[in-house]
Every structure is written in structure tokens, then in C-alpha cells.
Write a structure and sequence with these properties.
alpha/beta, Rossmann fold, 7-stranded parallel sheet, 13 helices, about 10% strand
Length: about 300
């Protein structure tokens, strides 16, 4: 067992060569994990192609990186935008193909109790986190096959444990399933598919102000009957729980996530899954292997109780 462990450590430490010849495309680079990853890959010598949603995000990234990093405006909810970006990328990479595609773009809101959500609320999250990942991957796959490269999909610990309502957990479970299916379908082409499962980190996705605004919006669109079933104090109690959770577990060290992404792109033998963050390793991952009744009881102790629950 000891020999196996040290053998695994050695194998895990082996890296590919010639970073400067390899192109990596990253989505969601305006801020957070994507922004930091692009800066790290640029310093390492990769030819980084960064997809940003806004002009400001693209300008901020270009000011913080070297001359070899290039940005492009990309909306992963638009197939037209994705196709246009793929054609631009094809010209950039030429015959080398695309070594890495990092599907990092995502959104968490709207997020709230399932009954509070409309179908449109679900769609707004799913079309970024789920459909966007699938559309980017299938569109860019010919370029990745040419380089026998890597696909790195950012899921979440909430893709293992559905801890709250809304489209976020659903979309991240879908990313997990899509990645597993894709890995098994294309492994004979020499392509690795890696899944990043971050815990809770301080990014725009976990910002409290937008979360609270969305919870108020969802509450205000409920019928009087549904509001009455929860009680007048339920919204404020729910918000207090969210504040407690975010303040208690959110990690400010984003490099714990980007280091996993970097390993997936540079390792000779990348891992299938990466758990990023102490809460991911010691809370969410173990919890995902527990019986459903244990998870249900744990969440029931944390969340407020509706006034007319039975």
C-alpha cells in the first residue's frame, strides 16, 4: 500500500512539456476562477484564449496579462456566439488544435426553495451552467481532437449534494453526468475529461447581496396562499441561514481551485475529479456517500421550518 501511494504521487507529479506551444480556451474570465486561471496559465507560458462576457472584463484581464493572451467576447447561452468564437479560435490555433477547454462560466442565481421558482427561473441558470457547457464542448470538440487535448468542466460540491433549491444544484449534477458520459465516449481519441468540484469560495457566485435580492424577488412573486403557508418570518429566517453559511464556509483562497484546473491541464496523467477546498474534502464529499436520510436530517436541522408545515 505504501509503495502504491508513493507510486501514485510520482505519477501525479509528472507534467507535459512545451507549454508555450499549447492553446487553452477558458470561459467565464471576467472575474473569479476564470480570471485568475488565465493569469496563471499566461505566466506559465500557455497561449491563452479567454472568453469574457463583457468588454470591461476583457480589458481588465488584458491589462493584467502578457501579449500572448487574447480575449474574445463570448455568451455561452448563444449558439451563434459560440460558433463565431469557435471560428475565431480555429484561426488562432491553426494546425496545432486546442490543447485545453475549460468550461468555467457559470451562474448561481436565481436560487431559493423549489416552490418559489418559476420554469423561467430554472431556465436562466440551466442554459448557462448546463446547456452552455454542452454547447461549448460539442462545438469545440473537433479542435480538441486535433490536439488530443483536455476538457475541464467546472461542476461543484453541490453537484454531489443537492443542498438547496433552484437550478444551480440541478445544473451541476448535469455537468457531472455529462462529463462522465463524454469521458467514456471519447477516451479512445486520447482526450481527457476532468471535473473540478469546488467547495464554497468567495466569488461573485456566492456574493450575499445579489442572493438576498433574488430571494426577495422570488418571495414577492409568490401567491398569497403560498406565502401564508411559509409564514411572514420565513424569508428573513432563510436569509439569515444563508448569511451564516456563506460567512462560515466561504474560502477566499481561489488558488485552491485554479491549482486543480492547472493540474488538469499540465499533468501527464490528469485526475478524473478534483475536490477543491477543505469543505469539499471533509464535509461535502463524505456527505455525498452518506444515506439520503442522513443528509435530509442534517439539512432539516439547518433550514428554517415553515409555519404551516405538517
Amino acid at each position: 500500500m505504501v509503495m502504491w501511494f508513493f507510486g501514485w504521487l510520482f505519477r501525479d507529479s509528472l507534467q507535459i512539456e512545451n507549454f508555450h506551444e499549447k492553446y487553452v480556451f477558458v470561459t467565464g474570465c471576467d472575474s473569479g476562477f476564470g480570471h485568475l486561471l488565465c493569469k496563471k496559465l499566461d505566466r506559465k507560458g500557455f497561449r491563452v484564449l479567454a472568453g469574457c462576457l463583457t468588454e470591461k472584463g476583457a480589458d481588465d484581464l488584458k491589462r493584467a496579462t502578457g501579449p500572448y493572451l487574447k480575449t474574445v467576447l463570448l455568451d455561452v447561452t448563444s449558439q451563434e456566439s459560440i460558433q463565431k468564437t469557435m471560428e475565431w479560435t480555429k484561426k488562432e490555433v491553426g494546425d496545432k488544435g486546442l490543447w485545453g477547454l475549460v468550461n468555467n462560466a457559470g451562474r448561481s442565481l436565481p436560487m431559493g426553495p423549489s416552490e418559489w421558482m418559476t420554469v423561467d427561473d430554472y431556465h436562466s441558470t440551466l442554459k448557462v451552467n448546463m446547456i452552455g457547457v454542452i454547447a461549448m464542448t460539442t462545438t469545440f470538440l473537433p479542435l480538441i481532437k486535433k490536439a488530443r487535448g483536455r476538457i475541464v468542466n467546472v461542476a461543484s460540491v453541490l453537484g454531489r449534494v443537492a443542498a438547496n433549491g433552484g437550478g444551480y444544484c440541478i445544473s451541476k449534477f448535469a455537468v457531472e453526468a455529462f462529463s462522465d458520459c463524454l469521458r467514456r465516449d471519447i477516451n479512445h481519441f486520447g482526450i481527457s475529461v476532468c471535473i473540478i468540484e469546488p467547495g464554497f469560495f468567495k466569488t461573485a457566485v456566492t456574493s450575499l447581496d445579489p442572493l438576498e435580492r433574488e430571494l426577495h424577488r422570488l418571495w414577492n412573486q409568490l401567491s398569497p396562499e403560498v406565502k401564508a403557508s411559509y409564514g411572514d418570518q420565513y424569508l428573513e429566517k432563510y436569509i439569515k441561514v444563508q448569511r451564516l453559511i456563506m460567512n462560515a464556509v466561504c474560502d477566499s483562497d481561489l488558488t485552491k481551485v485554479t491549482s486543480c484546473m492547472e493540474h488538469a491541464l499540465t499533468a501527464a496523467y490528469p485526475r478524473t475529479r478534483y475536490s477543491a477546498g477543505w469543505d469539499a474534502k471533509f464535509l461535502w464529499l463524505p456527505l455525498s456517500y452518506m444515506p439520503a436520510c442522513v443528509v435530509d436530517i442534517g439539512l432539516k436541522l439547518v433550514l428554517p421550518r415553515p409555519s404551516k408545515s405538517v
